[in-house]
Write a structure and sequence with these properties.
mainly beta; 4-stranded antiparallel beta sheet; 53% strand
Length: 215
């Protein structure tokens, strides 16, 4: 919650999908993004103004969050993503044009900063996502109208830039998603009001653009 500086917690009705509000928990200043690790044990919130990530343990019965720790980011983190193995996390830092790479404690969920990768070929990284195989990461550059593609080191979680792809002129891509099969990727483009569609090369992780659609 960008104004109230907290994370809202809900219980999901397993029949209807309806939400019942629980007790919010404090985050850092202006939280912009929240994600849950694949095991469902930990949650992470990227805090835009305080320049850090809040780490929470999730109560497996109630879903309530308990603060564990914080980890530093670059300037103005706008997105946080966890790889499918739950070993690594990535924060896209809008104003410092880089991505923070973390190792995740398998016991506490705490984050240890292991690397900072300059955004390849772009400025204002806004969103970062790891593909289902855990081999590739994708980060949008809202300031450069493109998406950067990285290979992930399976031992350290470090990123190696592979390529960039345009998201279209004056597009300002704000979000990237990869489908569960790992075959396709999509970017939501703020300025052009379009969704870019890509096919993912299963060997190298590179993107082949398809036909964009109007959002």
């Amino acid at each position: 919650n960008n104004v109230s500086n907290n994370i809202s917690v809900y219980t999901i009705d397993q029949t209807t999908g309806a939400l019942t509000a629980g007790t919010p928990v404090d985050a850092g200043s202006l939280p912009r993004s929240v994600t849950v690790d694949p095991s469902g044990r930990f949650a992470y919130a990227a805090n835009w103004s305080s320049g850090n990530v809040s780490v929470y343990a999730i109560n497996q019965t109630t879903g309530a969050l308990t603060a564990v720790s914080t980890a530093p980011t670059g300037t103005n983190p706008s997105s946080i993503s966890v790889d499918p193995s739950g070993r690594f996390a990535y924060a896209a830092n809008w104003s410092s044009d880089n991505i923070s790479v973390y190792a995740i404690s398998q016991t506490t969920g705490a984050l240890t900063l292991v690397a900072t990768e300059q955004q390849a070929g772009g400025t204002a990284p806004c969103s970062v996502m790891v593909d289902p195989s855990g081999r590739f990461a994708y980060a949008t550059s809202a300031g450069s109208d493109n998406i950067s593609i990285y290979a992930i080191d399976q031992n350290t979680g470090g990123l190696t830039a592979i390529a960039t792809r345009s998201t279209g002129p004056t597009s300002s891509p704000r979000s990237v998603a990869v489908d569960p099969s790992g075959m396709f990727a999509y970017t939501a483009n703020w300025t052009s009001s379009k969704i870019s569609v890509y096919t993912i090369d299963q060997t190298g992780g590179t993107l082949t653009p398809g036909t964009a659609v109007t959002a």
